[in-house]
Recover the amino acids of this structure.
């Protein structure tokens, strides 16, 4: 019967009008010839763009053919012509959902629910609500809590100890001041900062640090002795005594090197690593095997993030004074920063085994642990 009807429709002179095209499309659709039906529906809306039924049939046929984006376009035309018909919005929402346009689909489902008031369609309202819940983006995760400030002074103390062993008092002082910033009540940092100030000739600042250390530990004999010595030394400078005979002037090259080194220490203390390194370049030009300057420049290079150059300086310091243990520790730190853990572990082990006077047992213990941590299991 359907085939006969289709043949009659195709033969009639009315085939050119919109209604005829639409009816031919419906007949083709019932026969499962969906693509051909779509062609007829498209012809119908071309002939009469205001034929809302043809737009709806076209949209539904496209959706059945899984042409979801094209179906959505046809449903939009239909809803523009029939804005109060909820079916158009449901079909639009389904097409948008299957096109992957979740936000637009949620909007269309919401409009459908607002317009659908037929009791017989409650199941479709419930389905639309389920899709809305599934398509809504998840709430943005709460931002992670701000990390707590690092209150561990150990890395700063270790960095200061390396410089102190190398008699690089300016660099050591900067590290101990960093330790005090994160842990103001750290007794070790206060004691060693005072020691650096005293070595640099700043007795007033040294006294302030040791006074604080004594407040933290009133029974600390080291702090009491250091305070007494500094106060005595400061009193001697203010007494009306003839000035002590100055030491003999060093050879010109040594004097130049010492002058540049002193300037460098002050610059590095202010974290002016580039300028400090430049002064150390001049010191080493005047005295190429100035081991302390080489170690200090290695520390400056680490401050600059130039770890390979730090390796070169620590290696040169090791050659200039093989008795120093500080270059071994510096090499370990530099290689560790470069990600060369095997080499870092090697130098940590050498430092831990060193019998040099500047290798403190505490740092040797740390180096042993670091070497073990960096060694392949």
């Amino acid at each position: 019967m359907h085939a006969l009807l289709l043949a009659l429709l195709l033969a009639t002179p009315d085939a050119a009008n919109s209604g005829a095209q639409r009816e031919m499309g419906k007949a083709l659709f019932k026969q499962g010839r969906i693509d051909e039906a779509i062609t007829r529906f498209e012809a119908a809306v071309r002939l009469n763009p205001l034929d809302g039924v043809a737009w709806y049939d076209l949209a539904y046929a496209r959706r059945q053919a899984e042409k979801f984006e094209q179906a959505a376009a046809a449903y939009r035309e239909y809803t523009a012509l029939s804005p109060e018909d909820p079916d158009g919005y449901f079909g639009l929402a389904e097409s948008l959902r299957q096109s992957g346009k979740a936000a637009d689909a949620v909007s269309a489902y919401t409009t459908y629910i607002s317009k659908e008031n037929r009791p017989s369609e409650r199941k479709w309202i419930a389905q639309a609500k389920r899709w809305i819940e599934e398509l809504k983006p998840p709430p943005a995760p709460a931002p992670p809590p701000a990390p707590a400030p690092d209150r561990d002074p150990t890395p700063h103390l270790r960095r200061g100890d390396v410089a102190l062993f190398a008699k690089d008092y300016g660099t050591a002082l900067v590290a101990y001041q960093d330790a005090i910033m994160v842990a103001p009540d750290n007794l070790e940092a206060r004691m060693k900062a005072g020691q650096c100030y005293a070595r640099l000739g700043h007795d007033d600042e040294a006294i302030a640090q040791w006074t604080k250390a004594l407040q933290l530990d009133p029974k600390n004999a080291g702090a009491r002795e250091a305070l007494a010595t500094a106060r005595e030394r400061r009193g001697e400078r203010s007494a009306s005594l003839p000035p002590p005979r100055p030491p003999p002037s060093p050879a010109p090259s040594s004097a130049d090197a010492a002058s540049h080194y002193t300037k460098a220490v002050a610059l590095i203390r202010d974290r002016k690593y580039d300028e400090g390194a430049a002064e150390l370049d001049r010191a080493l030009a005047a005295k190429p095997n100035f081991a302390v300057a080489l170690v200090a420049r290695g520390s400056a290079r680490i401050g600059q993030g130039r770890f390979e150059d730090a390796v070169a300086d620590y290696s040169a310091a090791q050659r200039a004074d093989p008795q120093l243990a500080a270059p071994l520790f510096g090499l370990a730190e530099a290689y560790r920063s470069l990600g060369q853990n095997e080499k870092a572990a090697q130098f940590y082990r050498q430092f831990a085994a060193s019998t040099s006077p500047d290798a403190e047992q505490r740092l040797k213990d740390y180096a042993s642990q670091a070497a073990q941590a960096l060694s392949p299991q």
